[in-house]
Specification:
Length: 266
C-alpha cells in the first residue's frame, strides 16, 4: 500500500532516536488523529475498497509524523484528509486498527520510500493499520477550517504545520470540526446567488445546484418528500416575498395606467 504525504525528511538527526512527543491528553484517554493523503495516490475510496476495509499506512519518512504513529492505539479515531488537490478537505473518518509496526517499504530497494539507512534489526520507520469507518456527507474544507484559525481552531496543528501528514487532534478540536459539517453548505443556501443547498441532519442527501444558476427553488430532497430543511424554508419564503412584491408593483402600474386613461378620455 502506498501512503500518503510529502514531508520526507531523512536528514533529521533524530533518525535513530525514537522519542515520543509530549502527550496532549492523559494516557488513559483515547486520542484523535488526522492523516493526510493525496487522493490520486491513496484516497478514502481506496481505503474503503480494501479487504475488511483495512489498509496499512506506510511511507512515513518524517520523524515527528513517525512519533505520532508510535503513539496511536487501536480504536482511536482518525480524520481522513485529502491534500494536494483542488479542494483540500476532511472527507471521512477512519480508526486505528492495530499498534504501530515496522514499515517494510523502508527496506525495499525497489520501493520509492526505500531508506538506505534503515536496519531491520533496529527499525527507523513505522506504519499502522487503519480501518475505514465512513465518508462525510459534507466534506470539511481547509478553506472553512482556516476561518477559525484565530479562534476555535487556534491550536489545530493542520493550520500551524500543514505539511505534516500525521497529526494529533485534541478532543475539543475534534468535536468542533465535526460540528462544521453543515455550516458552509447551509450558509450558502441562504444566499440565492450561491444556489440552493439542502443540509440537514435528518436528510441523507446534500443537493446543490450549480453555482452559476440564476434560478432558485426547493431542493430535490424536499421535492422527494423529505422533511423541509431550513434552507428550503428560507428559500421558499424569499420566493414568496419576491412574488408578492412583483404582484403588488404590477397592480400599482395597472392602476396608474387606468387613471391616466380616464383623464385622457375626459
Amino acid at each position: 500500500m502506498a501512503r500518503k504525504g510529502k514531508e520526507q525528511d531523512q536528514t533529521n538527526k533524530e533518525a535513530d532516536q525514537i522519542s515520543l512527543p509530549p502527550n496532549q491528553s492523559s494516557s488513559h484517554n483515547k486520542k484523535f488523529w488526522l492523516l493526510k493523503s493525496e487522493p490520486d495516490e491513496y484516497s478514502i475510496d481506496d481505503l474503503a475498497s480494501q479487504p475488511d476495509k483495512i489498509g496499512f499506512w506506510d511511507g512515513i519518512r518524517n520523524f515527528q509524523a513517525r512519533n505520532f504513529i508510535l503513539r496511536m492505539s487501536a480504536g482511536e479515531q482518525i480524520f481522513f484528509y485529502h491534500s494536494s488537490c483542488k479542494t483540500p478537505a476532511i472527507v471521512g473518518i477512519a480508526s486505528v486498527a492495530s499498534p504501530a509496526r515496522p514499515d517494510p517499504t523502508a527496506l525495499d530497494p525497489a520501493h520509492k520510500y526505500f531508506d538506505a539507512g534503515s536496519d531491520a534489526k533496529k527499525p527507523r520507520w513505522f506504519g499502522v493499520d487503519i480501518k475505514f469507518e465512513k465518508k462525510l456527507e459534507n466534506s470539511i474544507t481547509l478553506e472553512l477550517l482556516k476561518t477559525f484559525r484565530d479562534s476555535e481552531l487556534s491550536d489545530l496543528l493542520l493550520l500551524r504545520n500543514p505539511r505534516l501528514s500525521v497529526q494529533e487532534v485534541s478532543k475539543r478540536d475534534w468535536d468542533f470540526i465535526l460540528s462544521l459539517q453543515c455550516q458552509q453548505p447551509c450558509a450558502d443556501a441562504l444566499s440565492p446567488m450561491k444556489g440552493a443547498t439542502a443540509c440537514t441532519s435528518t436528510s441523507k442527501k446534500r443537493i446543490r445546484q450549480p453555482e452559476a444558476s440564476s434560478s432558485v427553488g426547493l431542493s430535490d430532497a424536499a421535492k422527494e418528500g423529505d422533511p423541509p430543511t431550513l434552507a428550503s424554508k428560507n428559500l421558499g419564503s424569499a420566493i414568496r416575498e419576491s412574488s408578492e412584491r412583483s404582484e403588488s408593483a404590477s397592480r400599482q402600474r395597472m392602476s396608474k395606467r387606468t387613471a391616466n386613461n380616464k383623464r385622457a378620455a375626459r
